[in-house]
Amino acid sequence: MTLVQLDALDLSALLCSRVCHDVISPVGAIVNGLEVLEDESDASMREFALELIAKSARQASARLQFARIAFGAAGSAGASIDLADAEKVSRGMFTDDKTQLAWSAPQALYPKNKVKLILNLVVIAQSAIPRGGLIDVTVKGDGEAPTIVITAKGSHARIPPHVEALMAGTPEGGTVDAHAILPFYAGLVARAAQMDVSFAITGDRVTIGAVPTPEPDAVEASPAPHGALGDAPHPSDDEPPETALA
């Protein structure tokens, strides 16, 4: 199938919609809490409002910090992002008891598109366990040829609908909306980072793997593994295809 290509304006608009969707709930809760403070004189209600404001502000801040690296231009002055920063913003996204995060990765600078890929796959892994559970992130190898394995384990685990086609850039119907932009964007990042992504499910565990895309001569010598992404030529990690990435 032909890869769907979004122009820069459509891609940026859909990503902005995604970020707004993620922060509008905690920001709305902050507004509600401020209204309670204005109207209530009861001490217990005011205390509840302050707790709501503080919790929601932390949540909004965590989501914005995550989006700054996962979707934005953080670190664009250089070509690398510290994996410790990726772990920090990922942990900030899991502030409740519904989902736990385990993280095993080198303390090192990695090419920014590979770090952005990890963060986007973490979000996809979260959607694979709608009732919560454990997300385990393991990164091995150096930044030029890493192996990334993210497992999501929990009740009613499933590979998110249409995620493989969206990441491959071949969405059903040939269109992408705000609900589908994250896996579509993750596919753009994967191709920019020269990484192939695959999905597998066994029982209540979904495994997302990402490995370096084989060199052309290696592809000719042996078929690509089932589930690998990206049939188009791959640019360097710093020169994304289709649409420029931060």
Order of SSEs, N→C?
HHEHEEHEEHHEEH
- The top-level CATH class is Alpha Beta
Overall morphology: globular
Q: From the alpha carbons, calculate the radius of gyration and give it in angstroms.
A: 19 Å
CATH fold-level name? Heat Shock Protein 90
Instruction: Count the beta strands.
Output: 7
Largest sheet: 5 strands, mixed
Q: Which spans have pLDDT < 50 for at least 5 consecutive residues? A: 224-236, 238-244
Query: How many separate helices?
Result: 7
The largest beta-sheet arranges its strands as: 2-4-5-7-6
How much helix is in the residues?
40-55%
Q: What's the architecture, going by CATH?
A: 2-Layer Sandwich
Proportion of β residues? 15-25%
Going by helix content, strand content and strand pairing, the class is: alpha+beta
Q: Could you tell me the mean pLDDT? A: 87
The CATH superfamily bears the name Histidine kinase-like ATPase, C-terminal domain
Notes on the structure:
The protein is an alpha+beta fold and 246 residues long. The protein has a single domain, classed as Histidine kinase-like ATPase, C-terminal domain (Heat Shock Protein 90, 2-Layer Sandwich), CATH 3.30.565.10. It is built from seven helices and seven strands; from the N terminus they run H-H-E-H-E-E-H-E-E-H-H-E-E-H. It has helices at 8-39, 43-70, 83-92, 112-128, 163-167, 181-192, 216-221; strands spanning 80-82, 99-104, 109-111, 133-140, 147-153, 195-202, 205-212. The strands form two sheets. A five-stranded mixed β-sheet has the order 2-4-5-7-6, covered by helices on one side. A hairpin with a 2-residue loop joins strand 6 (195-202) and strand 7. Helix 1 packs antiparallel against helix 2 (43-70), helix 2 (43-70) runs antiparallel to helix 3 and helix 4 packs antiparallel against helix 6. The longest helix has 32 residues, at 8-39. It is globular and about 75 Å long.
